[in-house]
Queue: 2 jobs
Job 1
Amino acid sequence: MADLLLAILGVLDSGVMQGLVFAGLALSVVISLLVLDFPDLSIEGTFPLGAAVAAVLLTSGEPPVVALVAAGVAGACGGLLTGAVHVRFGMSKLLSGICTAAIFYTLNMWIMGGRGNLPVLDVGSYFTWAEALDASLKQRWYSSLNAFFHPASILAGLLVVILLKGASDFLLGSELGVVLRGIGQNEVAVRQRGRRTGVYKVVGLALSNAYAGIAGAVAAQYQGFSDVNMGIGVLVLGLAGVILGQELFARLGISLASPQATTLAALVGVTLHQVILAAALRAGTPPTSLRLLAGVSLVAVMALRRRRRALTFSW
């Protein structure tokens, strides 16, 4: 019984921590796909871009907060490139994102000095103090148990998520957010009202990819490395979390008629999704199969809501 309880606590601990790490991806998907109706594949390039920028700055002695902000700015630049290619050159939404992701694959290697992987284990990161506190708590309270929990790291990740959610709720509830939602629902009508929809699209994609860049920086600081391949499949992770959260809220009868509720559903969904993946790992699934599980889980969630309306906002 004790072993089962420890296993459950371990799954929750790992899943919640990973959910907080990938929370920025969920908010990125909310802005790009739900608000702008733009399936933005460029986050598979801007997520590792944020990680690469953060890793380089950390190894250069810069503070972790500076690394997080710089990663967000770098991600926003990636979104600007995607938006510019789409708006100025008329490239389709999917192709513009694919091109940006391909460009940043090489650019990320250049940023890391021609390497595909850059460790940051030996430098101070945003989670350094939390990891030290977690180790101290284990030594003091449960040193005899064959387990390690991360309450301080979860608190540190939660602080970042609260800031990101507050910023997204403010933006989506502002005039800018209203216009962005209007573009996603009826771009022609917004253009007829005198709004320059191309400019707003570029701004929206910059905001979306800023969240992806910050998520990449958080992931690099928590995992202890940056890798050019860490962006593969992150769109599926974010999308699965967003859809799972919306489905959960819908079945619980919780209204999604506000930006606050929609972003909260995305964060709950991405955390629940990571808990499910953590449980699969605990059950013996090889780590190399995680992307397969993520894709299958996305298909399963879509199948569950096949009779419901498509993902949209009502606010």
Job 2
Amino acid sequence: MFGFFKNELLEVIEWKENSKDVLVWKFPDKDSDIKYGAQLTVRESQAAIFLNEGQIADVYGPGRHVLKTENMPVLTKLKSWKHGFNSPFKADVYFVSTRQLTNFKWGTPNPIFVNDPEAGRVEVRAFGTYFMRVADPKKFYREYAGTSSILTVDELEDVFRGLVVPKFAEALSESGATAFDIYSQYSELGETIRPLIQADLNDFGLELTKFQITSVSLPPEITEHMKQLAKLNLTSNENLNKMQAFNQMDVDKLAAENGNYENMKGSRNDLMMQQMMMQQMMQNNQNNPNQSNNSNDNAGGKEEKMSREEIMKTLKELGELKEMGILTDAEFNDKKKELLAKL
């Protein structure tokens, strides 16, 4: 009886978050008993966990809760209270933040290896961010938070960064992504990898709401290869067809404005000639992908082998480019001199 009057009965239990850095907070009861009929206020993005003698009794979501035996079925059962027993009770109360935790950083301190069908085994360094939230407060408290009075977001980030990075390497391998995928499809690849990492976070009651790759570092020679592929995509047949359609629209527009369609035929023919030559050059590059490498080898002392027919054909094409104004006289003469020296 003396202990009962000595301790102040708790009538209001709530957590007013003063910092976004706190993830779990134990209500400071100071050995006080909770009054029967006390008010428990749980705000949005919070959950309250009641412990009786170290055992999880009840978990409350957002709202105002009146603490009575009929509203606390698990705790009432643990206490062996009979219906209508209105004495104060003792319990530990932990509040858990369930809001989304943003901008956690991750990165690969050591390179990971990706098997690429074109480039072979490629070293990759990747960096990014991830968001998570506590989806199951009961499981999170039991499997991770424990009995700490305060758990900060920084502590969670430090621990799970060590989990996310190796899982990223495993998930990347399972996804079958190539070096080009990593280099060009950040968002899509992040969404592919996220559920693979989520499988390990389920055991802790955590949800990985977003996993994002923000930068990728590849060896210089692989990066240059990716740039060449991008250039090749820009000269694809689809884009050339679009270019031809736009050029045709320009010719028709000029003809309508000038009222003289016949005089515009020459312009249309010139445009068609340019497009045909671009298509021919693209086809040559596809049939001979090592042409640029051969040119570099020539600079190092290796002579490119060209037949007389190929040289004369190239001279004719260069002459047409000069007539169309694409090549200057100086550029044409330099290339002509170079080709004639090979005869």
